[in-house]
Amino acid sequence: MDRTVVSTSYWHRHEDGRLQCDVCPRHCRLREGQRGLCYVRQHLDGEIRLVSYGRSSGFCVDPIEKKPLNHFYPGSSVLSFGTAGCNLACKFCQNWDMSKSREMDTLADTAMPDRLAEVAVELACRSIAFTYNDPIIFLEYALDVAAACREQNVRTVAVTAGYVDPLPRAAFFTAMDAANVDLKAFTERFYHRICGGHLAPVLETLEFIKQETDTWLELTTLLIPGENDSDAELDAMTGWVVEHLGPDVPMHFTAFHPDWKMRDVASTPAETLQRARRIARGNGVHFAYTGNVHDSTGGSTWCPGCDALLIERDWYQLGYWGLDGRGCCKACGTTVPGRFDAAPGQFGPRRMPVRISGPSSRQS
Fold this sequence. Notes:
The protein has helices at residues 96-99, 113-122, 139-151, 166-173, 188-195, 200-212, 231-244, 270-282, 296-299, and strands at 6-7, 11-13, 19-21, 29-30, 41-44, 47-50, 55-56, 58-63, 77-82, 109-110, 127-130, 155-160, 178-182, 216-223, 251-255, 288-291, 301-302, 309-314, 317-321, 352-357, 360-363. The protein has 364 residues and is an alpha/beta fold. It folds into two domains: 6-50, no CATH class; 55-355, Aldolase class I (TIM Barrel, Alpha-Beta Barrel), CATH 3.20.20.70. It is globular, with a radius of gyration of 20 Å.
């Protein structure tokens, strides 16, 4: 029996014999043998199955700040991996070789959940991240990995667009320790024209995570010149975040570089990121960050109570640490929201590809 093909739960049958996948708002209706837009959920033998269980496009040990998560065990290392396919069609995708892949040969490495948790322990990784493509589409695999990780005291992190239906949303995010959700823009036009999706389900996901789970939440917006970087849109987005999620949800504004189907668009100027950060802070966002650029001020964490430097960052390199052992500002005692150890991790900015095979992991 092929262990990489497993039955799934979120689907129902139509009168015409097609099966509707109910994992995400695309609601692909599939005849026998057809796959959804995500490519990894397929109508086989009268049910929808996940055909990429336990298979990965590659593994790498990263700094947690690369996800990006700045308030989730800073300085720690995370074992990152993804699979193939995606349930959105973003024209600017910067992992398109994996997320847009239609070749199962992309999935070159195999690891079952228990083995992944063991490898994370072997490599001294504080957490495992489902990233590179959206883990919503390989939900069953991700949930089994999360369960195996809990037994090994390893945390799990979802890097996701949050484009998911309510029932799988609840199952997925209640099992995650942290999530970074791509809030790609704040207009329906952008989501429909550039991503092939809709904004409303993503906003519903954000409210669910914040209000109904204990999952640590951070947001990322890749700012694309002329598409989602206007003052008006940034004002509306950051105002909504403060009103609906609260001022303590960190927001990361990151730089676009030409890729996939948007190679004719210029890279994001650093000033655009800094402008977004100013707008966010002006609307009451306590922790607004710039990313994909060298900007120590925009990449560092500052106290919302006294504006003291709390965590100095230059790209993924940590410097000064201004938190006490309780996760509070040393200068004024303000509690800083997040998940912190008494001292920062020491992994640093390096990136370590690894190969998972046989009884032990090895660096590639």
